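Hey L., structure's done. Input below.
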Amino acid sequence: MPTEPLSQKEIEDRLSELPGWALEGDRITRTYRLASHFAAAALAVHVAQIQDELNHHSDLTLGYNTVALATHTHDAGGAVTEKDLTLAARVEAVAAVHGAH
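Output:
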C-alpha cells in the first residue's frame, strides 16, 4: 500500500518543527555544515544507517564540509509523505552530535 502524500499545510506545519529544513519543489531539503570533511563524512555514514533502518533513502550529497539531503517518496508519486518527515526528524536528532549546524 503506497504512503499518502501530505498536504502543503501539513508539510509546512511539520517543517516549522525542523529548523533548516525547507520545501523545495516536490522535496524537503536541508544542508548541514560541519567543521571538517571527516566530520561531514561521519554524518553522511550515520544518515545512510538511518535510511537503511527506515528503508527510506534520500538523495544524500557529501561536500567538503557539508552534507545535503533532499527527499520525497517515490511510491507516493514523488510527493512528500510522513516517511520523509520521519527521516528528517531522525537526521536532525543526530546532526547535532556530529557538530552540524
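The two ends are 36 Å apart (CA to CA). The beta strands are 22-24, 27-33, 59-62, 66-71.

-- N.
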